Amino acid sequence: MFIDLHVHTEESDGALSVEEVLKLASERGIEALSLTDHETTHGVELAQHYIDKFKLKVVPGVELVTAFKDIEVHLLGYFGETCLNNLQLQDRLKELRLQRTALAYDMVKQLQREGLSLKWSEVEKVANPEGTVSKGHIMHAIHNHFEKSEEIPWRVISALFQPGGAVYLPFLEHSFAEAVDLIYACGGMPVLAHPGLLNNLRIVNELLSQRPIGLEVYYGYWEKRETLIREFEALGGEKAILITGGSDFHGPFSQVTLGQIDVPYECLEILEKGIKSAF
């Protein structure tokens, strides 16, 4: 059975609607996936209208941008369906969306100082007005800003927003510890997302030692994918309470497509047991 536990839609920074994502998943033989949009579960709510149509299991999820020692760390939260009506979770997600949108605005101003005449209105055109505006939307806007002859490679655009990049501004308003506590308090399971993107194994070990959490092992890294997966398989088996995986699919432009990463089905079974025990 094919599964994908890390998928984005246009409810955050993905390019496809919830219906389009579920349709594509069904066409590719995926039987279970998790919608993990940034700071929102609205896509999960919308998915309830299409589950019977596409015969898919949808695991409620969310991806949170957090801070640990002034480093931006992404944390996945997986829940039962009760998360949709959990006021503690939904109120906090709304606050975080507003804070992250404010940071995105600062990133655009930084781009302008670097000499790129991108306007905030161009970013708003590719963003969901009800969701978080993030660096993903800014990257789309940059891509759209240039004529085809001047097109900038995605890797070059992405590098601008990575640590050391010209417009890297980490989101430091939500601590990693607070985010883990929030997920547990709302009956969910926290999982450290794409640890290989941190480029710091010491930090990954520290994060796994903070609280009992899961580790995203199977992930669509652009480089050294197999090496990183093997490395984190070993670490996850030793220090994480469970392991997961997914494509981190954002749309047709994604370097890794929906369902492309081979995630063992037992990851979902163990995750669902963990959610039930947490709740």
Describe the structure.
With 279 residues, the chain is of the alpha/beta class. It folds into two domains: 2-94 and 171-278, TIM Barrel (Alpha-Beta Barrel), CATH 3.20.20; 95-160, no CATH class. Helices cover 43% and strands 16% of the residues. The protein is built from eleven helices and seven strands. The protein has helices spanning 18-27, 42-47, 51-54, 87-113, 120-125, 135-145, 154-160, 176-185, 201-210, 225-239, 265-278, and strands at residues 2-7, 30-35, 57-68, 71-78, 189-192, 214-219, 243-246. The chain has a seven-stranded mixed β-sheet. The longest helix is centred in the middle third of the chain and has 27 residues, at 87-113. The protein is globular, with a radius of gyration of 18 Å. Pfam families: PHP. It comes from Desulfitobacterium metallireducens DSM 15288. GO terms for molecular function: 5'-3' DNA exonuclease activity; 5'-3' RNA exonuclease activity. Residues 3-68 form the Polymerase/histidinol phosphatase N-terminal domain.
Radius of gyration: 18 Å
What's the tally of helices?
11
Structure class: alpha/beta
Beta-strand residue percentage: 15-25%
Name the CATH homologous superfamily of the largest domain: Metal-dependent hydrolases
Q: How much helical structure, as a percent, in the residues?
A: 40-55%
The average pLDDT value, as a whole number, equals 93
Shape: globular
Distance between the termini: 26 Å
Number of strands: 7
Low-pLDDT stretches? none
CATH top level label of the largest domain: Alpha Beta
Strand order of the largest sheet: 1-2-3-4-5-6-7
CATH topology of the largest domain: TIM Barrel
Q: Characterize the biggest β-sheet.
A: 7 strands, mixed
Number of domains: 2
Which sequence of SSEs, written as H and E, runs from N to C? EHEHHEEHHHHHEHEHEH
- Do you know the CATH architecture of the largest domain? Alpha-Beta Barrel
Protein name: Histidinol phosphatase
Organism: Desulfitobacterium metallireducens DSM 15288
GO molecular function: 5'-3' DNA exonuclease activity; 5'-3' RNA exonuclease activity
Pfam families: PHP
